[in-house]
C-alpha cells in the first residue's frame, strides 16, 4: 500500500525491524541525551495529569472520572517522544523484533535498554526535583502534594505479581501506541495513534516503569514537607514504606519486568512471528 497514508501490519513489522537497527546504531551519547529527554517528557505528562485530576482522585465518587481526565493529559508525553524525538525504554523493548530478524545481536539490544533506562531515570528525576522545589505541590491547599505522596505510597506497596501484571498490561498498550504510530505517515496519524491507547492505559491504572520514575521520586521528595504529608492522609507505617529502596525493589523491578513482557513479547514478538515467520515476505 505504497500510496496509502498508513502502513499495513506486515509493513509496520518490517519498519519496526529497521527502526530497531537504527536505535542500536546511535552514538551512545546521543542515545543517552535523547533518553534524558524522554524521561523528562513522560515526567511532564505525569505531573500535568496529577495537576489536572488530583482533586477528583481524592474522592471515591469521582475517582474514575479523575483517572479518565488524567488519561486525557498524559498522552502528551508520548506525543513529544514520537514527534520531537526521544529514546524511551518501554518503546525500545520492541527492538526484540530486530533481534529476531537477525539484524542486531541480543547483547546490542540489552546495552541499548540499559543506557536508555538510565537516561530515562535521569530525566524523570530532574523534573521531580524541580517540581519539589517549585512550590507547585502546595497547589489546592497542599492537596496536589498530598496526592503525589498518596500515589507514590500506593505504588511502593503493590505485591510483586500485581506490579508485574500491571506492568505487562501498561506496556502492551504503550507499545501498541508506538507500533501504530510507526504505521502512520503523517503527524496527525502519529498523534491519534499515541492518544487513545495511552488514555486507556492511564484510565485503567496500569504501571509504567518510566512514568514511575517520576511518580515515586516526586512522592519521596514531597514527603519531606509535613504540610504535604498531612494533606496526603497516608498513615505513618505506609509513609515509612515510601523510600528509595522500595522505589527500586518493590516497584521498578517487577514493573520493568512486566513492561518487557508486554512490549517485547506481546507486541514485537507476536507480530514478528505472524508476519515474518508464518507469512514470510517475498
Structure, described:
There is one protein chain. This protein has 14 helices and no strands. The protein has 282 residues and is mainly α. The chain has a single domain, classed as Glycerol uptake facilitator protein (Up-down Bundle). The relative contact order is 0.18. The mean pLDDT is 96.
Count all strands and give the number.
0
Structurally, the number of domains stands at 1
Fraction in helix: over 70%
The CATH C-level name is Mainly Alpha
Question: For the terminal residues, how far apart are their CA atoms?
Answer: 15 Å
Structural class: mainly alpha
CATH architectural group: Up-down Bundle
The CATH superfamily name is: Glycerol uptake facilitator protein
- The H-and-E topology, N to C, reads as HHHHHHHHHHHHHH
What keywords describe this structure?
about 80% helix, Glycerol uptake facilitator protein, 14 helices, about 280 residues, mainly alpha
Q: What is this structure's SSE topology?
A:
Blueprint: H1 9-25, H2 28-57, H3 63-73, H4 75-85, H5 89-92, H6 96-100, H7 106-132, H8 143-155, H9 160-182, H10 187-204, H11 209-222, H12 226-232, H13 236-240, H14 244-278
Amino acid at each position: 500500500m505504497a500510496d496509502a497514508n498508513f502502513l499495513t501490519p506486515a509493513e509496520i513489522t518490517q519498519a519496526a525491524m529497521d527502526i530497531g537497527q537504527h536505535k542500536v546504531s546511535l552514538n551512545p551519547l546521543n542515545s543517552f541525551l535523547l533518553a534524558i529527554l524522554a524521561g523528562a517528557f513522560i515526567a511532564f505528562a505525569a505531573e500535568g495529569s496529577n495537576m489536572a485530576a488530583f482533586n477528583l482522585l481524592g474522592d471515591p465518587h469521582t475517582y474514575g472520572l479523575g483517572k479518565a481526565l488524567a488519561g486525557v493529559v498524559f498522552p502528551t508525553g508520548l506525543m513529544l517522544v514520537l514527534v520531537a524525538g526521544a529514546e524511551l525504554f518501554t518503546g525500545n523493548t520492541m527492538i526484540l523484533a530486530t533481534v529476531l530478524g537477525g539484524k542486531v545481536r541480543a547483547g546490542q539490544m540489552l546495552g541499548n535498554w540499559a543506557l536508555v533506562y538510565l537516561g530515562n531515570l535521569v530525566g524523570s528525576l530532574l523534573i521531580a526535583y524541580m517540581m519539589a522545589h517549585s512550590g507547585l505541590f502546595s497547589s489546592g491547599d497542599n492537596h496536589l502534594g498530598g496526592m503525589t505522596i498518596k500515589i507514590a505510597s500506593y505504588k511502593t506497596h503493590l505485591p510483586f505479581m500485581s506490579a508485574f501484571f500491571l506492568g505487562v498490561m501498561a506496556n502492551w498498550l504503550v507499545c501498541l501506541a508506538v507500533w501504530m504510530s510507526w504505521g502512520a505517515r503523517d503527524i496527525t496519524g502519529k498523534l491519534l495513534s499515541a492518544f487513545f491507547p495511552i488514555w486507556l492505559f492511564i484510565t485503567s491504572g496500569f504501571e509504567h516503569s518510566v512514568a514511575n520514575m517520576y511518580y515515586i521520586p516526586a512522592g519521596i521528595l514531597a514527603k519531606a514537607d509535613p504540610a504535604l504529608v498531612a494533606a496526603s492522609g497516608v498513615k505513618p507505617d505506609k509513609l515509612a514504606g515510601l523510600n528509595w529502596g522500595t522505589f527500586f525493589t518493590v516497584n521498578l523491578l517487577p514493573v520493568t519486568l512486566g513492561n518487557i513482557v508486554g512490549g517485547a513479547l506481546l507486541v514485537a514478538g507476536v507480530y514478528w512471528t505472524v508476519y515474518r515467520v508464518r507469512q514470510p515476505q517475498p
